[in-house]
Amino acid sequence: MSDDRFYLPPGNPDRPLQGLTVLVVEDSRFASEAIRLLSIRSGARIRRADSLAAAHRHLAVYRPSVVIVDIGLPDGSGTDLIAELARARPRVPAILGMSGDPEAEPAARAAGADAFLAKPVESLAWFQQALLAALPGGVLPSGPRAVSGDRILPDPVALADDLHHVAEMLRGDGSGARAYIAQLLSGLAISAHDPALAAAAGQLALSGAEGARRRVVDLVEERLSRAQAV
Question: Among its keywords, does the record have Phosphoprotein (predicted)?
Fold first, then answer.
């Protein structure tokens, strides 16, 4: 990111993010697929990084117009990347934090985020409005814009991929990984509207007891079996 400015092409009323590039830093394929579909419907190009390290590799090559950073990542906190981006010159035009935990919003904003997306991110109108409001003035599309009531739901295959990943981590779970597994699973459950799985993830975060872990394993395996049967 050695250039001294970012190019922000104006959108249009039908595709208000036309010409923008969105980098989503998100370890869940299911959650990032939702952002991908929302971005494409809005006219934006999309790139994904699944870790802080991958995000740095992208940022060394590309100049995104918008960066959406999940707070819980496998190699650290998304707030560290938000703070780094907020300090950088030239600055990314719009930086948004994202989490299934609404209590993460103050930390994201304190680090320098312009806005915050609470999972699940499904509403096309809400997504567009959040990104447009975070961008600097002067790049908003001119003229009236129809507000879409569409909900964008990612492919269930992406959910199954995430569940397989969780299952693999659970098989090799050490005490140091438990907090990350619980965090990933909680965000995934919220995005998938699965309250039972969210509750089990919460119990896993609070307790390392075998019972809590076994409950999560059983639920993950049951949902994978259900997905394979479809």
Answer: yes
Which pTM was predicted? Answer: 0.88
Per residue in 45-93, pLDDT (tens digit) is: 999 999 999 999 999 998 999 999 999 999 999 999 999 999 999 999 9
Q: Which two tokens stand for residue 123?
A: 């509403």
* Sequence-ordered list of residues with C-beta below 8 angstroms from that of 139, at least 6 positions apart, any chain: 8, 9, 10, 11, 93
155 touches 33 (CB < 8 A): yes
What is the rounded distance in angstroms from the CA atom of residue 100 to the CA atom of residue 72?
A: 10
> What's the distance, CA 180 to chain centroid?
15
Alpha helices by DSSP H, the chain: 29-42, 52-59, 78-87, 105-111, 124-134, 156-171, 175-191, 195-206, 210-229
Q: Which of 197, 203, 204, 192 lies closest to 220 in space, CA to CA?
A: 197
Give the domains, in start order, of the chain with CATH numbers.
21-134 (3.40.50.2300), 156-229 (no CATH)
Identify any residues that bridge with 67 across adjacent strands, giving them in sequence order. 23, 95
